[in-house]
Design brief:
DUF983, two-stranded antiparallel ribbon, membrane, mainly alpha, single chain
Length: 135
């Protein structure tokens, strides 16, 4: 039988501002301090914030940001597609190539920001281990 040691981590019940952490996530900044970079590279979330040392590795964003990005980009592109078709009546292949380029560009812009928002939301709601503060 193994002896287990329980480590006491201070826990505060103060409420975290969801809107502020979502905005910080959109900016790809640490949801706790707002100044440290959350991402290392394009989509890799840092293990800890280099400024305030908040652990960020608890996030479970998984496929959620990709699904949300496709949903948002698709809803933004539908009116653009209809406006383009009704205004200029381009050939189908021209419209397909042009709007595909816009869709991919929009998706690449949105994906890291939406992932940051997912991490910020999970931090604000103390989900998946974010409930244990180191401060």
């Amino acid at each position: 039988m193994k002896d287990t040691v329980a480590y006491h981590q201070p826990h505060t019940d103060e409420e975290r501002d969801v809107n502020q952490s979502l905005l910080r996530g959109w900016k790809r900044k640490c949801p706790s301090c707002g100044s440290g970079p959350m991402m290392r590279g394009y989509l890799t979330v840092r293990r800890t914030c280099p400024v305030c040392a908040t652990e960020l590795h608890h996030h479970r964003a998984d496929d959620g940001p990709a699904w949300a990005t496709m949903l948002i980009a698709g809803h933004l592109m539908a009116p653009v597609m209809m406006f383009t078709y009704e205004t200029w009546r381009p050939e189908g292949w021209i419209m397909g190539i042009g709007l595909s380029i816009v869709f991919v560009t929009l998706s690449l812009y949105l994906l890291p920001r939406i992932k940051g928002m997912f991490v910020g939301f999970q931090w604000a709601k103390r989900m998946h281990g974010f409930g244990h503060d180191q401060s």
